[in-house]
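Practice problem 4.
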């Protein structure tokens, strides 16, 4: 194996093994090292036998590179890369030795972020192989480590353009020279001892992991069937107007336990697990009949986003890998023969959308905001194809910290038609029609992050009939540094106990802070028909992310916005099932809350772990569902199915005992729930102008006014409830 300096001014590291090569130009090295190009030295060097000892990483950190003593991460990554360089017809044993030794020798030349440079460079030079950038992500997510304080890498395509690598050092000698030591001292922001200590801790943790990572990535587990879908790593719970809940699964972890109908199969040459997959990765769950049917997802929906459009179609956007620019459309129907299924348009988005947020707009479009390494937004549907956007949103760049606590931003449609966008610890009022920031809101008083991975939750509090005021509430999250502390040190900081409320329509808005009964991160906030807020799921310490959460919070809390401060929070009976990372909750039309999921692990872990993968769904019943309140529970008898903004409509209901305060009517939009945020969740209190009854009967008729305009209530499907003494009726679907 050797390195050479070519006539075109590039440094190439190569071996006798076919297709194993790395080429660095002077400009590339300068960019990696964050130094002037003139300081880069390209020299031809013969590498010594890879079995001899070499120093790795930074000066002073010695990691012997012989067959008996290898850095464990280097060994595993080398094995993975070597495995992928083997021809499909070849034998691993026949090719492995030479290839792995070649990789070891390259690792011996690269310090600190050797894996990042090597994997991404290989991916860009040899695109016919599997995407090594994805393996890099999986490796470090599996070990819960972050070698630097730089943002994580999720794409090989934009690595050199978008990631600052000021800590990365490359030595062109087999041992650190004085030149490389000098370079390290000027371009690294961490001292040698700090880097060594970090790597020592890393090695200690890695060596304690018993799994063979190569087998983890390249072997398909064949567990017995235990649930509808075997891999609900990603749990998204949108409710459709036919009372069906759609559940998504990521596609890149292998087969599920549910076959696609009629022997159909999904063919995806870019899938990272199976090129041909005959199992389902999405289902439609019928709440009324407690049955389900498989749906066909073509590309990966991992950590995607979505909304329900004005016609009631479920619009799901983005995801991972070859699904990150896809749009998927599901038209709800009552057919059980499989004719209603996903239609996928790919590519349909201007840029990749992974961990983005969607919001339905008054004109019927959805705005799609952010995502990992995306500081912009776009719309769907588009008027002129892919050329519409993306449009820059500086807030997302301004709120980026080393832990990326600004993804899955909280987005709410204000009553004036503009958008309240909250990222990390601050918010703006944004006019998306002019790409203009209208207002910068104050930073939340504690300054701690509230978005993923610190993962608080947010709701737009119930809107009153006037449609003139709007108030946002944000609860929970994790203190600054929690993600890094959990990932690197396995120290789980207590979650945040505070909630903040802000009237976003005030002339001089300010945050009003309250304290929850218990700390909570990864909680879900669900608007109830009564106008209250349910806070459910989550952990008392740590953050979102694999293996990052501790101390499950089993007790839900009801929050009553109009009550006095203090008694606003009411602790409810605890659940027996921890619901941590990748759990969700969504309101059903009958007033129950469907709760499901929880998988804080990279893969499936059903035993031998503190918080096993949870594949169940359960219904949470608020107190208002108790049978003792049946005499106070209204029953809607009739209502128009189509409404118009600002017009009156008549609603009939039956009720045995009416409260002295009378009844009120609420209208709730269906939400798209994932990662502790329910996109498009919205509750409106409707104005009642007349109540009448026929003497001697328990039947009533009320005259109600629909929301004034599309700013207050965008056109679409809503659930309408009649509420009496805090007891809601079963809802009915209407379209406005």
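Answer key:
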């Amino acid at each position: 194996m050797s390195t050479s300096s070519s006539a075109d001014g590039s440094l190439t590291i190569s071996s006798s093994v076919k297709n194993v090569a790395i080429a660095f130009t002077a400009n590339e090295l300068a960019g990696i090292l964050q130094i002037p190009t003139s300081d880069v030295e390209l020299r031809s060097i013969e590498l010594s036998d890879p079995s001899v000892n070499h120093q790795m990483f930074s000066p002073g950190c010695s990691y012997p590179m012989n067959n008996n003593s290898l850095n464990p991460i280097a060994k595993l990554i080398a094995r993975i890369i070597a495995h992928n360089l083997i021809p499909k017809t070849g034998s691993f044993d026949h090719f492995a030795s030479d290839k792995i030794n070649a990789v070891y020798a390259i690792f011996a030349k690269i310090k600190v972020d050797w894996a990042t440079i090597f994997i991404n460079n290989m991916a860009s030079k040899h695109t016919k192989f599997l995407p090594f950038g994805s393996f890099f992500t999986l490796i470090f997510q599996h070990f819960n480590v972050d070698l630097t304080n730089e943002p994580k890498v999720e794409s090989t395509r934009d690595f050199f353009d978008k990631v600052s690598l000021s800590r990365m050092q490359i030595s062109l000698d087999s041992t650190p020279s004085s030149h490389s030591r000098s370079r390290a001292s000027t371009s690294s922001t961490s001292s040698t001892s700090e880097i060594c200590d970090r790597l020592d801790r890393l090695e200690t943790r890695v060596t304690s992991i018993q799994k063979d990572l190569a087998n983890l990535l390249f072997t398909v587990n064949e567990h017995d069937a235990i649930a509808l879908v075997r891999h609900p790593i990603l749990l998204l719970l949108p409710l459709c107007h036919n009372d069906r809940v759609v559940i998504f699964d990521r596609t890149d972890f292998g087969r599920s336990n549910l076959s696609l109908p009629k022997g159909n199969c999904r063919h995806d040459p870019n899938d990272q697990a199976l090129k041909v997959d005959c199992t389902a990765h999405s289902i439609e769950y019928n709440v009324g009949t407690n049955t389900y049917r498989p749906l066909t997802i073509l590309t990966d929906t991992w950590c995607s986003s979505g909304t329900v459009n004005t016609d009631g179609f479920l619009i799901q956007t983005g995801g991972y890998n070859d699904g990150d620019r896809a749009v998927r459309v599901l038209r709800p129907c009552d057919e059980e023969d499989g004719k209603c299924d996903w239609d996928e348009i790919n590519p349909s988005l201007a840029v990749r959308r992974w961990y983005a947020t969607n919001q339905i707009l008054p004109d019927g479009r959805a705005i799609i905001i952010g995502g990992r390494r995306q500081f912009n937004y776009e719309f769907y549907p588009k008027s002129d194809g892919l050329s519409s956007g993306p449009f820059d949103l500086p807030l997302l760049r301004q709120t980026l910290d080393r832990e990326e606590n600004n993804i899955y931003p909280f987005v709410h449609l204000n009553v004036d038609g503009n958008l309240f966008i909250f990222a990390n610890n601050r918010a703006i009022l944004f006019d998306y029609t002019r790409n203009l920031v209208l207002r910068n809101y104050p930073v939340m008083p504690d300054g701690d992050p509230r978005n993923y991975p610190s993962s608080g939750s947010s709701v737009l509090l119930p809107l009153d009939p006037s449609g003139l005021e709007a108030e946002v509430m944000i609860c929970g999250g994790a203190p600054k540094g929690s993600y890094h502390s959990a990932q690197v040190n396995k120290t789980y900081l207590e979650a945040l106990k505070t909630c903040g409320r802000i009237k976003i329509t005030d002339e001089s808005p300010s945050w009003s802070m309250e304290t929850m009964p218990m700390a909570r991160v990864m909680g879900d906030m669900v608007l109830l028909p009564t106008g209250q807020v349910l806070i459910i799921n989550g952990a008392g310490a740590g953050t979102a992310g694999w293996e990052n959460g501790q101390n499950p919070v089993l007790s839900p809390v009801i929050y009553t916005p109009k009550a006095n401060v203090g008694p606003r929070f009411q602790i409810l009976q605890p659940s027996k099932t921890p619901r941590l990372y990748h759990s969700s909750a969504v309101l059903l039309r009958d007033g129950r809350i469907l709760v499901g999921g929880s998988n804080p692990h990279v893969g499936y872990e059903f035993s031998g772990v503190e918080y096993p993968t949870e594949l169940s769904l359960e219904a949470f019943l608020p107190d208002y569902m108790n049978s003792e309140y049946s005499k106070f529970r209204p029953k809607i008898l009739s209502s128009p199915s189509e409404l118009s903004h600002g017009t009156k409509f008549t609603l009939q209901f039956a009720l045995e005992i009416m409260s002295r305060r009378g009844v009120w009517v609420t209208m709730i939009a269906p939400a798209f729930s994932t990662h502790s945020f329910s996109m498009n969740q919205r509750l409106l209190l409707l104005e009642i102008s007349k109540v009448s009854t026929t003497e001697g009967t328990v039947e009533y008729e009320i005259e109600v006014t629909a929301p004034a305009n599309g700013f207050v209530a965008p056109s679409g499907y809503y659930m309408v409830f009649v509420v009496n003494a805090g007891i809601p009726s079963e809802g009915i679907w209407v379209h406005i």
